[in-house]
Amino acid sequence: MIATDSLADWLGARTDAQLVKLLQLRPDLAVPLPASMSVLAVRAQQRASVLRAADDLDTLEFAIIEALTANEDARTIGTAITPLSKTTLHAQLKDRVTKTAFTAALTRLLDRALVWQTGDGLHLTPSAAEALPWPLGATTALPDALTEPEVTSALAQASPAERALLEKLATTGPRGRTRDAAPGTPPDRPVPRLLEARLLHRIDDETVELPVTVGQVLRGEPVTDPHALAPPKPTLTKHAPAEVNAVGAGEVGELLRDCADLLDALGRLPAPALRAGGLGVRELRRLAKQTGVDEQRTGLLLELLAAAKLVEKGLPEPTPELDTTDDFWAPTPAADAWLDAPPATRWVLLAQAWLDLDRMPWMIGLRDAADKPIAALSAELRVPHAVRDRHAILGLLGEYPSGSALSASDIGRLLAWRMPRRRRHFRLDAVTATLAEAATIGMLGRGALDSAARALLHGAPTSVADAEAEMAAALPEPVDHVLVQADLTVIAPGPLVPELRARIALVADVESAGAATVYRVGDASVRRALDAGMTAAELHALFANHSRTPVPQSLTYLIDDVARRHGQLRAGMAQSFLRSDDPALLAQVLAAPVADTLALRAIAPTVAIALAPLGELLEQLRAAGFAPAGEDSAGAIVDLRPRGARIAVRPLARKPYRPSPPSDEQLSLLVTELRAGERAAGARTGQSVRTDGTRTGTAATLALLQLAARVGRPVNIGYVDAQGVASQRVVEPIRVGNGQLDAVDPVTGATRHFTLHRIASVALLD
What we know:
By secondary structure, the chain is of the alpha+beta class. Helices cover 45% and strands 15% of the residues. A hairpin with a 6-residue loop joins strand 26 (740-744) and strand 27 (751-755).
């Protein structure tokens, strides 16, 4: 109780700015609003709140906590604690830390109210010692005798039984009890061999301990030394910022192209969802094969598209013809608008979705607790700390100048020093995979953050617009020309302008994608363009106007030959009809077996009707070797290509609401309310009235308030606001009437209005 009272006094002596900073660093202390400093002090010492506040402490700050803990443990039973002063504490650590760094670390602990002062003495908040990420004394003990390379070499020589024993200690706890630690144990047993190799430390005849470095190596964590109170210095690799931006832009081009191909594949054939909600291995392989992308990259792209709401789970329209009623993964209507947007805009949507993704796509294919592979889009990929860790890794890169690259091991080691309680989150495999994902998305080039990624990570209100502008500047300018070759290939020397890209994709098939895309023109691709409504003259003009090389005769002959045969048969709705200017050709169709399948019937020498829908009519005739074309009611050729399945976004599948942290102004108001509550709690009261809801109680309350207003005495009122929150506050009544009390708040000097029937108690102050 004494500690709580002293902490409350210390908190009351803090400035408003310092209290605002405390609530910023520990927002849980403000919910609900504490009625007084004593309540705030009690909350600040609660174990759950202390452990939460300690998550972001670094190694130096934990060394200060450990030194204060050791001082409290060293006292003699029955005697009072002699608190350490700032000077004494720094003297204990001065050989390993500068005074500037020590002062900054102590200030951060004071800002969080994990350490507080009475005079020159420093006191540790209870439960802070429980937050230590290592055994007590690790920061004062000398480092382990074995270095990381020596540990790795020794582990390679350990037998399976010895390795199993070490891994057990690494996962369950560093200390273990065994009789083999006693002298005289046969030297060929595992424990004596590990003691000899210095992979274990002997505590006593029945206890051994796993060295910190050995445990970190076994768990795959960054190897850190609690004794080192200065952050490790990483090795920087410098690259030209322009080179970094160019490499990132190249990755963006491939990313957008692969995502478009994946949306097209899912639109043509939606992928059945597993009962658990993910995507099966077979479907993932099918999509990877169709798009020409490896499975791991396909899984990442699916996660990005789903996070950006371009792909969703449900029943698409049209529904796939499969013997199942389960859900499917298919594109949403938003995918069409995304495909038509500028490249930089499309990239920003994907990059922002990845930064806010509470999942780890790199875990796809790993084994879960049941030894089953983790599926893409499954719930097993959800990790609560994914967003925080991703921002920590990229934010660290953003602290260094543009073009600076760090290795994954250096990033993990530095983050583990800064956040030792979360050091297991920064294992080498996790950091490496996160950097690989960032590079795939185009946020890294040569291992360094590009300009667009730096703008996106900045967090300013204009960060999205700035990132889009940076990426637009880094991406190559679209070109409006192609190079037609004699072998019927068409080379796009860069990204094409949208209109030209759509037309070339219609008349030619992609043969190889990259910075320069190679298309190939063939019979089927020319027929596809004619089916979409283009004429032979338009195709000739397309290549003549946009090719920087002469159009070869072979391409001209190909277009003319396909166009000559195309459209001699015209199909329409009857359900459908078939017409031809050549009666002999129509007679040939009616004599073919396909006529019975389609129930074709001639109604004129040049016209026949069918019971089959138009799409089926065209498909069956083409399969039979004919080349019909669809037309509308005016006789113009129509584009009957399938548009792909789409699935509407369900309201429940939208991004959950995330409340924004309170602003500085809101926290300042909270501190003002806290000051008022503290004044009310510490005021000495005289005559008091507590209303009971009766007419007599209300009259007594009104009379006491009127008396206070007449004689100018402050009162302590108990008030219940419209939300039902009760509070105590000291006010100076001015007037009472019309069901309302007008009073001056002595803390702020502002006039406030209180509804009389919400005043639960009134007490005159001496």
